[in-house]
Amino acid sequence: MTARTRSTHTPMEHLTREEARAIAVAAQGIASTPPRRRPTVDDLRGVVNRLGCVQLDTISVISRSHETVAFSRLGPYDVGHWSTLYEPEHAITEYWAHAAAIVPMDDLHLYRPEMERVRETLRTEWAHQQPVRDAVLSRIRADGPMSSRHFDAPEE
Fold first, then answer.
1. What is the per-residue pLDDT for 38?
2. In which region does residue 144 sit, left (phi positive, over 0), alpha (psi from -120 to 50) or beta (all else)?
3. Which of 43, 62, 148, 151 is most deeply packed, by most CB within 10 A?
4. Cβ-count burial of 48 within 10 angstroms (0-12 exposed, 13-18 middle, 19+ buried)?
5. Which residue positions in the chain have pLDDT lower than 70?
6. Cα–Cα distance measured from residue 56 to residue 58, given in angstroms and rounded to the nearest whole number
7. pTM of the model
8. For residues 77 and 92, what is the distance between their CA atoms, to the nearest angstrom?
9. Tens digit of pLDDT for each residue in 30-43?
């Protein structure tokens, strides 16, 4: 066989459903045994980095969604580590990844094109809302923090 006819393709692997499921579970970090020691901020950072994003959910029946995701991989941990990753470490932020989610700051550049697209859409398609936004900000600056019930619906 000459160099011209030699194939550069590797044969395709075939997986059973069980094998595919096992790979997916391992990739999500669910198959691993939680650390025997008390999980650290670095352990929590590792969970977020491994997953790429952790969905936020404001509903808290037992615990918040992101706290439950971390618990399922780390076992009992200090939920205050989330605050440390936000500030002072600036290791994570929130963005609308597929839904409201915590994402690693190191991955934020991956979302920039979508951020710019949304910014342009807001600038062009929602420009008529600018006076409403300006009025709300002006009132908050003058009167301090308040909730939405303190505002009347804008005239259409």
1. 97
2. left
3. 43
4. buried
5. 1-7, 60, 154, 156
6. 7
7. 0.73
8. 18
9. 988 898 999 999 99
The owner of tokens 């609308």 is: 96
Which pLDDT score, from 0 to 100, does residue 88 have? Answer: 96
Rounded CA separation 25/28 (Å): 5
What is the reported pLDDT for 87? Answer: 95
Q: CA–CA separation, 117 vs 120, rounded Å?
A: 5
The tokens for 73 are 């991989």
| Two structure tokens written together for 7 | 């194939």
Q: Give the pLDDT of residue 97.
A: 86
CA atoms within 13 A on the CB side of 92: 27
Pick from 34, 13, 31, 12: which is nearest to 22 by CA? 31
Which residue's structure tokens are 């600018």? 130
Chain-centroid distance, C-alpha 24: 19
Dihedral of alpha carbons 114, 117, 123, 126, sign: negative
Dist CA 17 CA 77 (whole Å): 33
Q: Which residue has the tokens 């939405």?
A: 148
Alpha helices in the chain (DSSP H): 17-27, 41-51, 65-74, 80-86, 108-125, 130-143
How far apart, in whole angstroms, are the C-alpha atoms of residue 90 and residue 45?
11
